[in-house]
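Protein modeling request. Please complete all fields; requests missing the sequence field cannot be processed.
Requester role: graduate student
Desired output: 3D structure, token encoding
Chains: 1
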Amino acid sequence: MQINATALTRGVTVKSVALALILIPVNCYWIMYTEMVWWGLFPTTMSLFFNAVFFLFCITLLNLLLRKWARSERYALTHGELLVIYIMLCMASAVASHDHAQVLIPMIGHVFWFDTPENEWRELFYRYMPEWATVQDKGILEGFYEGQTTLYRAEVLQAWLGPALWWTGFIVVLLWVMLCINVILRKQWTEREKLAYPIIQLPLEMTRNSGVNFFRGGPFWTAFALVSLLNLINGFSYLFPTIPIIGVRFRNISHFFTEKPWNAIGWTPFSIYPFVIGLGFFMPLDLSFSCWFFYLFRKKQRVVGAIIGVRGLPGFPYDRQQSLGAYIGLAIFALWASRKYLAEVLRQITADRSTLDESVEPLRYRTAFGGMVLGCIALIAFSVKLGISITLGIAFFAMYFALSTGITRMRVESGAPAHDLHFMGPDYALPTILGSRRMGGSNLTALSFLFFFNRAHRSHPMPHQLEGFQLASRVRFHPKPLVWAMLLAVFVGSIASFWAYLHDVYRFGSAGSFARHPFNRLQQQLNFPTGPNIPEVTFMGIGMGFTFLLMFLRMRFFWWPFHAVGYAVSGAADWCMNWLWISLVISTVAKWLILRQGGLQLHRKAAPFFLGLILGEFVAGSLWSFYGMATETRIFPFKDW
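Delivered output (641 residues):
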């Protein structure tokens, strides 16, 4: 829906921004405590952050009570204001996430604490370590790794302040470039192609008319109550093992396949999550089908590999490499399909002769393009200061933003409940393609620091930005102030993430966590430099080529049921789809039966029930989480991937 500039509602206001800024530190602490101290729940490893949904649920209920109590709209939040709070919480959550700040912060001092004569890190890459971006004093780091002390000492705060500000500046610019790309692509994907944006359905419907109609529905409350009761019983079961657990969770069915070649399928969880069934219901039917179909297709590749005895390719079938190629292929195909629109944008930028309406865009196209270019220059300059060459820096960010565009396209089109691509960013791909031998220690060390936003892509910020613009469009408030609200949330979220993480580790201690992988990999690259990895590069190309084939067949034959997005997101070696597949099977069958029996009318009637499945599990799980934090007790992990 296009915004009518003459009928805008309130969205970004002092009230909504202030409330979001108050909640962001609380939100970041909650994330850090559950994901790093407990190592459980992991709210930021899925497309719809349950922590942000829970805060929105609470604010919406309080807002509804305020409207009834005050009998006035003056003090109540509007639909747009509620969603601005939600969007800002999502942006802060993406920065604080399991695949972002929680990777960065332990990397800042890791090398200097874990250096030993045996690993020879001092000789290998101490000289490449940037002093301005790291903490090198072992006296400061002792409290970080051993715990039992406090962050709030002058020398500790001073040691961390400089690196925190440098990396926060980098993060803000990184997400600014994503915003600019989203501004340029928004009109094509939203208004012309009319992509589905399934992930926004719950926050959009929950806040419509302050939730008056949403919270009155019988099907919604039925599902909400059933799932809440389920989580209540399972929570008590976790605390008191004599109470039986209800449902199917954390089961591995691979032990049923012990004979060759079927035992090649590997670890295969069989876990049913009501909230995943709910999210899957709002996915387009062909896309939900494609996700689990291609998951099983990847498993079949492993079995075929065992049958034909592919012993010269130890990584076969190279699931992650295929998915990396697929994501980049999605980005290339999406840009190619938008070529006429992008030509219009280019004319608008260069000559102001396009017919494109910019009055309701988040930024003017000329501003977005200039901001993207200047932002990329700043990112490359930062990377050069880290030690990377200009040429490699350009290649790195070109690949990264292509991958980001592919992930965003996949999310807004499919609404996959989760998506990841472990260890498959350009920090891995470039040494694989070019060979570590020719890159040198300075480049490889700088790439290791850039691992923090490439470890996995489950909480990627770019889709949340575009979904925020779509929420603004659906609720009819102007998105231009939303750009600056998002950037403010990113800045405050980054500072709050540093504070929350450091507060916890100086109390509980840290084992180094995610920082091990990039620096152990760096040690391997410097001790045993290699040339290009031909098999892995080949399977990246196969993934990209297969994506192009699937997209071509889909354009050529309207009945073609297999979507390239499902192939990209379904890598069997990836973490999330292992947990999702059986729930997506259930939601696909349920949606197919509903559409077959009652069409769109029955689908609309059933939608509140599936929204109740999502919200019931999110609210019950969040309440258990707060109980666990208050009592310092680990609780039932209703979602533990």
